[in-house]
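Data availability (excerpt). The following record was deposited with the supplementary files.
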Amino acid sequence: MKRILLLSIWLCVPALVHAQPGRAPELSAVAFRHVSVVDVVNGRVLPEQTVIVREGRILKVGPSDQIPAPDDVLEVDGRGRFLIPGLWDMHTHWYEPQALGLFIANGVTGIRMMLGVPMHHQWRQSVSAGELVGPRLRIASGVFDGPKPVWPRSISVSNEPEARAAVRQSRDAGADFIKVYELLPREAYFAIADESKKLGIPFVGHIPETILAQEAAEAGQKSIEHLTGMRLACSSQREELLREWGRIIRETLDAGESKPWIRALKELGPRIDETYDPEVASQLFALFKEKGTWHCPTLTVGYSIGHLNDPEFTRDPRLVYMSPAMRNSWNPKNDFRFRDATDEDLANRRERVKKDMKIVRDLHQAGVPLLAGTDTGNPYCFPGFSLHDELDLLVQSGLSPADALRAATVNPTRFMGRTETMGTIAEDRVADLVLLDDNPLVDIHNTRNIRGVMAAGRWFDRPTLDALLDRIKKSASREPIGFVLFRMLESENAAAAIARYRDLRENQPDRYDFSEVQLNMLGYRLLEFGRIDDAVEILRFNVELFPDSWNTYDSLGEAYLKQGNKELAAKNYRRSLELNPDNQGAVDAIKKLESY
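Predicted structure:
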């Protein structure tokens, strides 16, 4: 296999790895005194308030002259400052645990992970236990796509039985919701909708090229991402255009081309725009409101892609927090979607964002609920930072600062059915809070001026946040050793790679990231390519280096299982469980092994 293919898979496809530790502060008992509380529901500020937090919950909220602070709490002076609920980024793709703290550093205390893999469930467990600094996670299934999926590792379904079985399997594997994608056949899409409804699990995602937005709303799709299919659905010729769009997509895929949407958009885009019908749009938006169909526009990703040829934009100072692998993956030459993009293509993308912003304005004015999301993980969509970019773009689209703030706070909790427990600053709500220096209702840019963050009752003051950012920055300056060894393994075996690891660690300890997660990623990559014996050797070496990590034993157990060595698989799963009794994956694996 050629190097470019190997590297692109390393960069673009999520690895099944576990989180490396980065302990969060202990649960804090805190009293925010004389603070201005932002009531996001009503878009107003309540001055001179005291908010008392204990054991991860808001205990009391009220005027400071009526609520004394208990003696056993840390008092935080809120004079001249503003307290808002923790922010949510409702569309993310992230697979690097060492940078997960960037969300917290930016006041993003919750994220919706739009392509779930096993490590995300382990992150959630580690974050909850205070072993890892990161946000709350809502985790998708894998991507449900058609027989010729867009992305590797998608859940490919062709018909109704396959679709229903996949929904059940994803629900049983712990997915919080089902993610649908572009190339699903109609039969499979409607089977997913029906099975999801029966099982009580939401389904969200793109609108497939075989489906109109009107049909998606009627079918119960809970959220539509990136405004997919919206302009076509507002056309007076939408049924005919849908057939033409599908024909172009299928012909392009059958011809072996990898970017069918570019051709479809070039051929049909002008006609879609010319046949835009305000009455059709009005009826569609009313249907969304009636059916409770949410929209997550992710304007940030469109804006970023449209500026990939702008040197000022691509010199973003926030790149210092991104790993070398992530920065490489953001180079258009390393991404099949943008490798051949011309200046004209990118200019068209910028124009499309302007049109999308008008749709966002119209959706909002029609009362269709919106969610703030960024598509983090795509080029120049930064963990945490870009949520503030999205809020800015929502305001530029016509929302007020209060409306934009709702899209990142109370709206996500409404969407998830959790308004009784989070999303506002009220008694008995979970203590996800952000302390700001300035009023965000006056200027949405003020959400960036963060004085401190409380995530699930753990208080990160400004010095702690700065130290967190500094640690992530230092980590990002080191080249991942797994990346180096992966290139080497194109022509060498595991023994040579291990020898190289030892040499580099001894002689260049500051140049590379030698963390546990690097060898774990490498081991899983080898498993994916069928190099099982080499994977076992790499993961066994990881156990040798990190003998106190439940994660290393768990991964080695999986490799032994794939190798057919059930005895050693069970031994390592049991050792993992000794180190982490809450490792449900090991429990399930041992039960399965004992049933053989």
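Summary of structural features: The chain is about 45% helix and 15% strand.
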